[in-house]
Specification:
- The protein has helices at about 20, 25, 45-55, 70-80, 95-110, 125-130, 150-160, 180-195, 220-225, 235-240, 255-265, 275-285, 285-310, 335-345, 375-390; strands spanning about 35, 90-95, 115, 135-140, 140-145, 145-150, 165-170, 195-200, 230, 245-250, 315-320, 325-330, 350, 355, 365-370.
- It contains 15 helices and 15 strands.
- The model has no long low-confidence stretch (mean pLDDT about 95).
- The relative contact order is 0.16.
- It starts with 17 loop residues before the first helix and ends with a helix.
- The protein folds into two domains: about 20-45 and about 285-390, Alpha-Beta Complex (Aspartate Aminotransferase, domain 1), CATH 3.90.1150; about 60-285, Aspartate Aminotransferase, domain 2.
């Protein structure tokens, strides 16, 4: 029997929610089911709420230290959940994984350096590179047997003496691919051979599906660990993104010192006074909740994938090896990207992420978030099925 009620439908319009209260700006209407921003429509778990409430009982919200419990919680979680033994001293902070990408770039590269990304990929990767005056190099992923794979031959062809860093999404967003140890080792060998840094965004690492196992990139070898920055957070796992608290794991002391110097220079190292106890509570108390969450989301994913296969064959689904996000190949609808966006909003009544926002390689795709009550998934899929039916000859 489930301890937590994931079926509860919570009204989020009018709460300052990006996912809901930006619908009119994003889609031109509020008459859509918002299934875009990657947060969940489930209550943030009680142990996090209790930790925040307890901290609120202190009558002074002044500057605060990040106590040892923070670093211990991150290290223990990585060991228990991902089999990666790290030293607590390797752990530092960022207000978020996206912030960590930019801080790492500013700290460890210089203007004009080339940084490789693998599109289609989470759109802030592009801004982190180009917005910080670095040169963006694309190493597009390729689809084989319904799954993304790294094109390492192409990667080797675009590396030159100005290339300094590779950024990966591990597991991959938006495709949901869980990179295998063999894939990560092959990538790591290239990083070592060409003296490249590796930034690994592992925010979806706790949400691996179908009995698969997440491999932290830095766990592949000590040699790769020494040149890797690993970005993690309890925010995606426990629906607490608004608390702006993430862990950054940097085994190399020199790189860690440079990172912390930049973190201090832009004065964001204090973080959120409530985020610290929230992360500690999540990582110390959250495993039972997480297992129930994954089981519930698994049912949502199974339902949607089965329905696409049996009743909406025009849309192909990439099996989400991780996360609660489905990457929808909508090219079978015969629409250009603008027509596809309009179709989803006007005909299906769904507010989804535009695949092209992940790079031109995402054209013809859409991303849908299924971390919501089953009744919402059921309604959304029914609306999409009816909209597709109306377009059939």
């Amino acid at each position: 029997m489930s301890t937590y009620d994931f079926d509860e439908v919570i009204e989020r319009f009018g709460t300052g929610s990006e996912k809901y209260d930006l619908c009119n700006e994003m889609f031109g209407t509020t008459n859509v089911i918002p299934m875009w921003v990657a947060d969940m429509d489930f209550r943030t778990p009680d142990f996090i709420v209790n930790a925040v409430t307890h901290r609120m009982e202190d009558p002074i919200f002044g500057y605060t230290l990040r106590e040892e419990a923070f670093f211990t919680a991150v290290a223990n979680w990585m060991a228990r959940r991902h089999g990666w033994k790290i030293e607590e001293e390797w752990v530092t902070f960022s207000p978020g994984v996206v912030s960590a990408l930019s801080i790492s770039i500013l700290a460890l590269t210089k203007p004009g350096d080339k940084i490789v990304v693998q599109p289609p990929v989470y759109s802030p990767f592009y801004a982190a590179v180009e917005g910080n005056d670095r040169t963006l190099i694309k190493n597009p992923l390729i689809i084989k047997a319904g799954r993304y794979h790294m094109d390492l031959d192409h990667l080797k062809s675009v590396i030159d003496d100005q290339t300094r860093m590779i950024m990966i999404s591990n597991p991959h967003n938006p495709g949901g691919t869980v990179w295998t140890p063999e894939e990560l080792k092959a990538l790591g060998d290239i990083c070592i051979e060409h003296d490249l840094l590796l930034i690994s965004d592992e925010i979806h690492s706790d949400l691996v599906n179908f009995g698969l196992v997440h491999t932290p990139a830095a766990s592949i070898s000590p040699e790769l660990a020494r040149r890797t920055v690993t970005c993690v957070s309890s925010s995606k796992t426990f629906n607490a993104a608004g608390l702006a608290t993430s862990g950054v794991i940097i085994p190399d002391e020199t790189f860690r010192t440079l990172y912390n110097k930049r973190l201090s220079a832009i004065h964001v190292g204090f973080g959120n006074i409530f985020g610290n106890p929230a992360l500690v509570a999540a990582y110390n108390q959250g495993e039972a909740w997480l297992e129930e969450l994954k089981a519930y989301i698994g049912k949502n994913l199974d339902y949607a994938m089965d329905l696409f296969t049996s009743r909406i064959p025009e849309i192909k689904v990439m099996k989400p090896e991780a996360s609660y996000l489905l990457w929808l190949d909508c090219r079978g609808l015969g629409l250009n990207q603008e027509e596809l966006r309009t179709f989803m909003v006007k005909e299906a009544g769904l507010g989804l992420n535009d695949g092209a926002s992940y790079g031109e390689e995402g054209a013809g795709f859409m991303r849908i978030n299924l971390a919501c009550p089953f009744s919402v998934v059921e309604k959304a899929m029914a609306q999409l099925e009816e909209a597709v039916k109306r377009r059939r000859p």
